[in-house]
Amino acid sequence: MFRERVKPGSVMGEEIRYKVLSILYLVVVAQVQAYSNGKVTKACQTMKPGHGYSSQVTSPPFYISTNSSTFQPGDTLLVHLLGNQTDFKGFLLQAFEEGVGLDKSIGTFSLLDTTAQLLECHQPNDAVSHTDSQYKSKASVLWHSPSVPGTEFIRFRATFVKDYSVFWVAVHGPLIRIPGAASPPTQQTPFVPSTQHSTELSKPFSAAGCGENTTCMRSPSGCLPSSALCFYVGMRTHNGMVNVEMSGPDTGYLGLGFSTDIWMGNDDVYLCVNIHGKLEIQTGWTNGRTHPILDQRVHLSGLAWRLADGVMQCSFQRPIAEKGRANLAEHLFLFLADGYAHNGMVHHHDRQPLVAGPIIPSGPPVEMVGKRGPLYLKAHAALMVTVWLGLVSFGILVARFYRFAWPTQQLCSQKIWFQMHRTAMVMAFALTIVAVCLAFVYRGRWSTVAGAHAYLGITVVILVVIQPIMALFRPHPGTPKRYIFNWVHWAVGMSAWILAVATVFLGVDVRTLDLPDPVDAVPVAGLVVWHLLIEVVLEVYNYTNHHTGWSSRFWNRKKSTPQKGSKFHTVLLVMYILGLLAFLLYFYTLVARF
């Protein structure tokens, strides 16, 4: 029982109310993925709604039209989003340079009516979305091309939402070009018909020989190729030939790549494409992070396919070594991508490919699990969550409450609370630098795909570097200016923690990490809520036991006296640490699984 009721207007009451509101805000931010008001900037990088459903793979009943097929620098085009006898509730429209992907939008938009609103994805006013969830058959906007010459081909792309679970992602509009421009780069890969005969399989592939006589990659681990939830690659070697099988859900196409590294680009590619209910097998080569250039330069034999029960399967044989293609007698990484295809046009996959290896495809049989999240980014994510929602949160709690609960206890001639705080913060500083380096090692440059996550992250790093520099010049305890350092140190540290929490929430949704949505936010939100809850409990305990408030002691610099209930503080700290460990282990499991 509380000894006193918290007064509505008291400082204590305001602080508790603030923390409760903070908890609710963080939980709501973590979980809300769809917006009927059209504020969908979170979907800019993928153009995919966070509804928890897969995009439709059928031909979209919506299309994009423009009043011109050409543009000059500084021109204005009229763009229409239309339904083909079908209305839509929501949309997201952007313009992109053809052949580049979704990394950066081109030009800006302006509005013609209140059915649309402007958004900022990569630059101000470079995207348009709906303003409400009412059904609409048409939306019209103006697009303004860049005033500086440079881009020769652009294509409008729009995501149309028919209802919460039915939507089409990045529907392509007409290609718009500068007059006189040469042939455009290939963004939708046109299918080159195979000149070789293929047969239809009577039964699905079997994974019975995985690891024994077949090299396999599966995701999830141990799944069966006959399942629509299973991605599978199998390879067997016989008489200088490698028999390759690939299987996955029928989304439109599967793409198998052999690569000498974990990066997409300069890879030997084999596509299995659904064309009007029949699967065709095609070969190609990627040049950088672009769509594959398709060809028929490799000698394939034994082409076979099966399309049934929502599963697409293709198999073929190719020589171990062939000029101009990947040498299957060398160490290679396997990539398996899936995506949308329409009338033989292969669209860019909207999620990371599965990656496994390195292995020798023609070597001894092994069994592997394909992962979408790169190891560097998995380590980056695990470290950042550990640092900011584990170590830093612990350091903040100890410095705020335990300097007064344990004012005399010492460890190695230093107050124990200070030793805990300093150790946690020094580890946090070092691991933050390591985690940032991992992200840069993975990308090799500044990431434009990570969006606000990258900018907030760099801001946090700057604040992290400032903290130890300030600590080197801090006045001695008891000196007149010490309180200034206390408040600046607290303000910079709390700013870094708050920004880091926001950065982590954005980071777990980064497309490259590919964590399941909205499950990815559960351990992160749990860590934040657990920390704030323990702070509230300690504040209430101190208040009801008539302990001097933290802020007054901070301002007045009064000497600490032992508090009653230090055993309570000890028990609560142990519970706090166990709670942090539980949520962290949950997050590690999530990262390792996907």
The total tally of domains equals 3
- The helix count comes to 8
- Terminal CA distance reads 46 Å
CATH architecture of the largest domain: Up-down Bundle
CATH topology (fold) name of the largest domain: Four Helix Bundle (Hemerythrin (Met), subunit A)
Outline type: globular
Poorly predicted parts? 1-13, 23-34, 186-193, 551-560
Q: How many beta-strand runs?
A: 26
- For the record, what CATH class of the largest domain applies? Mainly Alpha
Helices and strands, with pairings:
Elements: H1 11-31, E1 62-66, E2 76-83, E3 90-97, E4 108-111, E5 116-119, E6 127-130, E7 138-144, E8 153-163, E9 166-177, E10 199-200, E11 215-219, E12 231-238, E13 241-249, E14 253-259, E15 268-275, E16 278-285, E17 293-295, E18 301-308, E19 311-319, E20 332-339, E21 341-342, E22 345-346, E23 354-359, E24 367-369, H2 375-405, E25 410-411, E26 414-415, H3 416-443, H4 452-472, H5 482-507, H6 521-544, H7 550-556, H8 566-593
Parallel strand pairs: 10-18, 11-24
Antiparallel strand pairs: 1-2, 2-7, 3-6, 3-8, 4-7, 5-6, 8-9, 11-12, 12-13, 13-19, 14-15, 14-20, 15-16, 16-17, 18-19, 20-23, 21-22, 25-26
Helix pairs in contact: 1-6, 2-3, 2-5, 2-6, 2-8, 3-4, 4-5, 6-8
